[in-house]
Amino acid sequence: MIWFKKLIRKFGIILLADQVQYYYLLLRTRRSRAAFKRSNPGVALPPTYFIYETFNLNYSAYYQGGLETAKWLVDHLSKYKKPENLNILDWGCGPGRTIRHLPGIIGDSSRFFGTDYNKEYIAWCSSNISKVSFATNNLTPPLDYPSGFFDFIYGISIFTHLSEKMHYAWFEELMRVLKPEGILILTLHGEAFYDRLTEVEKKQFAAGNLVIKGNTKEGHRTYGAFHPVSFVRTLIGNHSLMEFIPGKNINGKPQQDLWMIRKTA
Ligand SMILES: C[S@@+](CC[C@H](N)C(=O)[O-])C[C@H]1O[C@@H](n2cnc3c(N)ncnc32)[C@H](O)[C@@H]1O
Questions:
Q1: Taking a C-beta distance cutoff of 8 angstroms, is the pair 212, 224 a contact?
Q2: Which domains, from first to last, does the chain contain?
């Protein structure tokens, strides 16, 4: 399967193959999506392609899974900061899977922001999600926020779709908009994804180098970056690493690593 994907990527048709997979899943999930809609008539749902591109074409995983992820984020944050009166940013929020739940969990004393380079996602979020201020950014920095504005920023599976150059540029930008002592949570493709790499890529990864599966649109789900621990430690530099939780492999499904970083003053 890996060699097949490698071939598709090499011939520059991975976006086309991804579209085919989308239509296949659209057909396969029609009953479960209809059932979710019947049981949850009050839940605003993004267009199917938005959910597919950013996550997984499954309404329940988008909505219930998003709620679980939001609670998981707050649990991690609460170990270090009282979740009150904070400025919180979801960088790469997609169609709002997690940020839509945060105001309900954390409460009105905090302010919530979401940003993404995909204008369509942000248009949908702005019309359908309340208590969150949404904005677009470009594929490249900067963000349109002042320096030192946020207490907490999270980016779930964003660096996983960016080039090496963009890793350095965006890490610096996230640190700019974070307050001193502010907290950043990132999820990345770590060791659990090793089996998805070709033999050449495995060698690169084992040597501590970022692995890029490119030849497609940067930022899109078909563009992949894989993160050895030593690469991320170098990226973090002098900021302090609070937690590193390696992703597990659950029933053959690799989970992303969690990196929790505190900005040094
Ligand atoms: C795998 S999806 C994850 C979406 C969301 N964080 C979630 O957990 O549901 C990756 C997201 O990153 C966004 N993205 C990619 N490059 C970006 C960039 N340079 N700036 C902001 N968002 C970006 C994509 O548009 C997409 O919404």
A1: yes
A2: 2-262 (3.40.50.150)
